[in-house]
Fold this sequence. Notes:
The protein has about 110 residues and is α+β, with helices and mostly antiparallel strands. Helices cover about 55% and strands about 15% of the residues.
Amino acid sequence: MDATKETTLALNGETLTDEVILTMAESFKALADPTRLRILALLSEGECGVGDIADHLEVSQSAVSHQLRLLRSLDIVRYRKDGREVYYDLADDHVRDILGRTLEHILYD
């Protein structure tokens, strides 16, 4: 392929710019980590505090916070504060759908 030739790509009717492709790749990289997938599976059941996530996964709160910070920067999770406690949840149903469809793909296809 000629490096100077621009190629227009689309997915579901949406144009895939280089910026969109890079953001998608970053999101997939974030989902490629087993600890982050465990966190997301737990959050798919509902909102959780950092301490509860750490206890459930048997990892340090610091490690959980680090992973959540990355997921938050990519808009995969959202958070709310209640006093000193921070609670996390999946950002939206799109994230839940990606996880569910990936699981279906692995188990049933």
